Amino acid sequence: MDLETALHVASELAGAIWVTLALAAVTLPLGLILAGLATWARRSRHRALRGVASAYVLAFRSIPLLVQIFVLYYGLSQFAWLRASPVWIVLKDPFACAVIAMSVCAGAYTAEVMRGGLAAVPQGAIEAARALGLSRFKTFLLVTMPIAIRRALPAYSNEIVVTLKSTSLACTITVMELTGVAKDLMSQTFAVIEVFCMVALIYLIINMVLIFLLRLVERLLTPPYQRKPMLAGARRVVSAAKWRSIGAASQKG
Amino acid sequence: MNSTVIDLFAWGGDGWTKPLLTGLGVTMACACIGYALGVLLGLAVAFAKLGQNRWLGAAATLYTTLLRGVPPLLVIFLLFFGTNGALMWVARGFGYAGYIEVDAFTVGVMAVAFVSAAYSSEVFRGAHAAIPVGQFEAYTALGLRPLAGLWTVIIPQMFRLALPGLGNVWIMAIKETTLLSVISLAELMRVVGVAGRTTGQPFIFYGMAAIIYLVLVAISSRAFHVIETRMRWA
User: Fold this and answer.
1) Which domain holds residue A42?
2) Hey, are the CB atoms on A66 and B178 less than 8 Å from each other?
3) What domains, with CATH codes, occur in chain B?
4) What is the pLDDT of residue B1?
5) Which parts of chain B are beta strand (E)?
6) Helices (H) and strands (E) in chain A, counts
7) Which ipTM value was assigned to this complex?
8) Chain B contact set for A183 (CB, 8 A)
9) Total number of domains in chain A
10) A64: which of B49, B79, B105, B178 fits an S-S bond (Cβ 3.0–4.6 Å)?
11) Residue A133 has what DSSP assignment?
12) Which residues of A touch B (CB under 8 A)?
């Protein structure tokens, strides 16, 4: 790959990064809101509500995202009355369609993450809060939720990576994000490996930054006496080296 | 309306049931072959990570980090645009200057295999870590060589422990095959798309695909659940 091609590729990819980030930035909060609603509905007293929410989570976790996107973008265009209605302003836009489909899908996956977090809250803590006279709402707000969020964060960072990767599917409905641009560049420049490596690096860096940020959040939510050092791995290596040198010293002596 | 829907899914003639079933067959073939290869490759990658060789371990870690952090669609594009060039480059070394093309099915199988390998290697590594040290000591005490012990004692137990994770990887493999429609492999998604365009009823056909995948995933998770419970009592 000569310099001119390299610059061309880099500038094309730089523009596409923002599309990918925008897709993820809109999808993740919407997914969180939907997941919150689904989690609330699944814990509701009404059987019908629980049933609907469970069906939503099961169906949207089982159906491949590409099918969901195509149903929304290509499938709905079949109905003339829909094309005439004001909803069409949103549904004819590929970016909006991608965001809606991805949010609904991410919501279903995140609802499972939330369920896991809530299940990990010790029953004793909730009982203790109730015994102290906190109302059900206050117990949830001050005791259950903080613990649940902390427990759910590692799984949620997984979910973020999945969502970021799923933004690539938007290129199948003409939203030119990173993967879509990469495809065009691969077929234009024939520098397949080089383009792949550059795009892969971009994805990995975005992933790492997001995971790091989430770990910061997790640390902020953990009470100081429970905090583990952020660079636990590095410390382990250092202490292992120290032990080894102590061992070597004692062998010498 | 009702009669037209029935006509759409008629068996012979212009009905779409036969093409849909063919597409489903291609989907399943691609998922099965790719998954089987992926699990074997994943086992090898897992042992590369667990083994003593530092370079092999680093290469395996790089492989899993890359394939798990990058969208599968990008991997498909890499293989689709890359394999022809790579093969022609190798062939030119042997003095053959013609054009070589790898068909979409092979690319699809490779894509499913490489991605499932990355995920299943992590599953296997977890399973390996979950086997009690006593098992390793036991086969050594019995006088088995490491390779024999691995093959007869450790790997069978790893598969049992890895089953839930492998079930998830299988479901992922099914879902990944839908992406192969972008490189015009005639799997279910592609057939459904063609049917929708030809008949002007894309909603019905994509909805049909959604139901088919839902059923496939439901059957798969049920089947893995049954195998898991059987294995637990064995």
Assistant:
1) 3-252
2) yes
3) 27-183+202-233 (1.10.3720.10)
4) 47
5) none
6) 12, 0
7) 0.90
8) 77, 81
9) 1
10) B178
11) T
12) 59, 62-68, 70-71, 74-79, 161, 165-169, 171-172, 178-179, 182-183, 186-187, 190, 192-193, 196, 199-200, 203-204, 207
